[in-house]
Records
---
Amino acid sequence: MNIATIGTGIIVEGFLQAIEQLDGASCHAVYSRKEATAKKLADKFGVQTTYTDLTAMLEDPHVEAVYIASPNRLHSEHATAALKHGKHVICEKPFTSNVKELEALIALAKEKQLLLFEAITTVHMPNYHLIKKHLHQLGKIKLVQCNYSQYSSKYNQLLAGETPNVFNPAFSGGALMDINIYNVHFIMNLFGSPEQVRYQANRHPNGIDTSGVLTFTYNDFIATSVGSKDTSSMNFALIQGEKGFIHVKNGANGCEEVLLHVDDRVISLNAQTNPNRLFYEAEAFQQIIETKNHEQCYAWLDESLSVMKVLDAARKDAGIVFPADQI
């Protein structure tokens, strides 16, 4: 799997570190609008080719797949261009700005018979699979609680009167899309789509949500999902059943350790040996690309689309509108 990257942030470095650990995978090229930025990342990872022209990079015959970690608003544009050039796509979360954009991407990928993935760490974690395996031991589920809160250095810029991308409606930012999305995937991959969604958000005067509480109503239980970029917290996920509960330490995005509380016992479950939380998704994507397993890819796309529908509904409930919604 020869990849090229779009974006040069910390998440890209983590993904490239994961790629380095995979046999048969390598980064062939780095794209950035600025040559100096592209070269700095390329030099750090021993990548020989850099581009400042996106079309030129997408026309490179050595590039098999494109990893996209540009600002949220540009995900759809960059993924569309990559698919039209015959490249498989791995796109950072959130997949797109809204359902309309994602449906168009999925249709294009299927038309081109290409593979398209949302890079969401949670659902590929070995410990997440352990949660699924042991969930039945809790009995009837009554409550699910998730909290992923991380004070953002960009929030200081927002308070100072600047508008960094992550807090800019024009770039489809906000706490729901940037951080609470991990909780949403965590809950929905276990329990499916809820009957009702409510989102109560703390909003900046520019309309973006800096933190918020998302409530899922299922047929016989309730789930709450807290995501914050304006405060910090003890991060966790709790699944509470009539016969016990599961505690995921340090939040849904990494599933670092799972504590199963049943029959007055606490059992530690941990199948993760790699400290790089992006490794497991990179490994999964490589396997699907190498085996051309479109069926599994499409199943993941169905899940991502269900999540995007909930994100759209949540934003609508809170009155959060992106310019991308008006197109």
Note: The radius of gyration is 20 Å.
---
Amino acid sequence: MPVNFLHRERAELDALMPGLDQELARHPLADLERAPSPAIAAFKAAGGPGLLVPTAYAGAGASALRAVRVQRAVGARCPSLAVATTMHHFSVAGLVEAAKYGDGLEGALLETVAKERLLVASAFAEGRPGQNILTPHLSAERRGDRIVLNGSKKPCSLARSMDLLTASVALTGPDGVERLGVALIPADTPGISVHPFWGTPVLAGAESDEVRLTDVELDPSMVVATEVTAAAVPDALNIAGFLWFELLLTAGYLGVASALVERTLHRPGGGSDDPTPHLVPVEAAALAVEAVARAMDDDPWDESLLVRALTARYAAQDAIAETTRSCLAALGGMSFITSPDCSYLASAAVGLTFHPPARTRMARPLRDFLDGRPLRIG
């Protein structure tokens, strides 16, 4: 096995989630990728839920660079876990940003997530063709001193293992304008139910089923307000969320492609072959993701940085397509016949293409941004 491939990523994973890499490595890929997957329990046991929680709230306080390396390492062992935990980390990152402006509830919740190793699922609007991903799936109605939620999210990763659910909701302010709010909902709240939805064995371990909310009552203090209106121009909170989402998601899928590269480099008789057709595209894409992650430490979190993150994500899609073709050709028909792992990894890796915002949907918004107009997420 090549010792200098994925070595930095696995070192970060060992440092921040001790024992997780070894635990995942001892399971066959097929066992990790089915639901229920032992990977989710292993992630919790290793302290994974606290990865992005600041140290002030008892978390690991990982930087963006360390986090994307961790996600790549996770994706290389268990694609479903990388996808599922991206949604957790994305939700936690949003709470971290909200804690800078909130009344203390967010900080207390973050500490609880880290100390009790809670899993946070996301019910943001992902997965509907043609729909803006900031548009809430759930309806929110004020009834006396409560907010009542109705609707569903499908698919919703970690649907069967979540401890908390975050959701986008539309709230009408005193000025009559509807703005986006972020609701924090305990998974055991009356009215929440989970139903089968995911119909393919690919990434089944992510538990991406349907979560329904029927007259779910919530205290208004559990809703964090933002300044985003129907025009969907990202504010600081949402830019932060999008940055984390794009980088962590891309890193995870690059990890999946890297697992295929690793198998190709290690195949019998492959030690004398030119590794660059398999190695270079995925490594270059990972470097692009790391460059944006480094910039998150030094540069303003603005629309320009988000465009760089989207650029790295779309470049990774191309790199994954090129890498999977190259690896499958090098592995040959006998690998396809004797083991499902390589064809599975190739199928899972292309899943990055299906997450919003799709490149085709962003064509006009990116053109408008280049011409000096505000960036809109389509």
Note: The beta strands are 120-122, 139-143, 146-156, 164-172, 178-186, 192-195, 209-218, 223-225.
